[in-house]
């Protein structure tokens, strides 16, 4: 399988990249980011791209792929609605529209999050924007598109949150992961499971277009 990965420098993307590198099902990974993921591997090629609203300059290089794992995203904390929408909705749709044009047989997997508002009318800004993004992706002419909605994600195998405050949060919550998993298994997953689930869903599909943590964990085990 030939895979395009967005967000490989982030916590989720690092985990997904690790699983792709280890998987016998993935032959090629093209990582697209504004800075390198910092990994060297025979399967991995990287494109440094700065304008995520416009992929025309690299469009020729984006054909012939089986799957896209879209892990690019931001926290809405401290962001204006306009800035959050630009990164979350506009960048995602700009990439997805380009890929759909070039890869009609592609499976596109987007990481949104639990609580995403498919109605696009709720009170919570981030949930509305994620919902609007998911709904637009589901209308594009991909072979298939799946929306991953994880809740708490435990970083594994060296995947690290980007900001200092999030690293502190994970330092406190991380050791409690076994307890959280026992108490609320429906709301927790790991970076490893997200990556494995993406590969399995791209390969074999899934019963539903929207996957919550429990569905991600089930898809992770199917490999
Ligand atoms: N972490 C969680 O527990 C969790 C739970 C549920 C859902 N999610 C969702 O999963 C997605 C990824 O989360 P994460 O925790 O991996 O985030 P992260 O660690 O902050 O990584 C974000 C990724 O997006 C890229 N990015 C952000 N802003 C960008 C911009 N303006 N232009 C180009 N690239 C940009 C970053 O690239 P740079 O390195 O260049 O900044 C990085 O690769 C998000 O949509 C998030 O809502 C995360």
Walkthrough of the structure:
- Helix 1 packs across helix 6 and helix 2 (about 80-100) packs parallel to helix 3 (about 125-140).
- It is globular and about 45 Å long.
- The mean pLDDT is about 95.
- The chain has seven helices and nine strands; from the N terminus they run βαβββαβαββααβαβα.
- The protein is of the alpha/beta class.
- It is about 40% helix and about 20% strand.
- The longest helix is centred in the middle third of the chain and has 22 residues, at about 80-100.
- The strands form two sheets. A seven-stranded parallel β-sheet has the order 3-2-1-4-5-6-9, sandwiched between helices. Strands 7-8 form a two-stranded parallel ribbon.
- Bound molecules: NADP nicotinamide-adenine-dinucleotide phosphate (NAP).
- NADP nicotinamide-adenine-dinucleotide phosphate (NAP) binds near residues 7, 9, 33, 153 and 161.
């Amino acid at each position: 399988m030939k895979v395009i990965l967005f967000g490989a420098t982030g916590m989720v993307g690092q985990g997904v990249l690790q699983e792709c590198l280890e998987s016998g099902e993935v032959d090629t990974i093209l990582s697209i980011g504004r800075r390198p993921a910092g990994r060297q591997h025979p399967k991995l090629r990287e494109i440094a791209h700065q304008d995520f609203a416009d992929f025309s300059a690299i469009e020729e290089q984006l054909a012939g792929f089986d799957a896209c794992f879209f892990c690019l995203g931001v926290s809405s904390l401290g962001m204006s609605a306009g800035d959050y929408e630009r990164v979350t909705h506009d960048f995602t749709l700009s990439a997805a529209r380009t890929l759909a044009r070039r890869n009609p047989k592609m499976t596109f997997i987007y990481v949104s999050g639990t609580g995403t508002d498919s109605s696009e009318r709720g009170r919570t800004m981030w949930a509305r924007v994620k919902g609007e993004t998911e709904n637009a992706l589901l209308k594009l002419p991909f072979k298939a598109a799946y929306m991953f909605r994880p809740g708490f994600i435990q970083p594994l195998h060296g995947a690290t949150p980007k900001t200092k405050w999030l690293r502190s949060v994970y330092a406190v919550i991380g050791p409690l992961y076994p307890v959280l998993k026992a108490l609320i298994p429906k709301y927790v997953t790991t970076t490893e499971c997200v990556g494995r689930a993406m590969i399995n869903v791209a390969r074999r599909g899934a019963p539903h277009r929207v996957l919550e943590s429990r569905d991600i964990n089930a898809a992770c085990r199917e490999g």
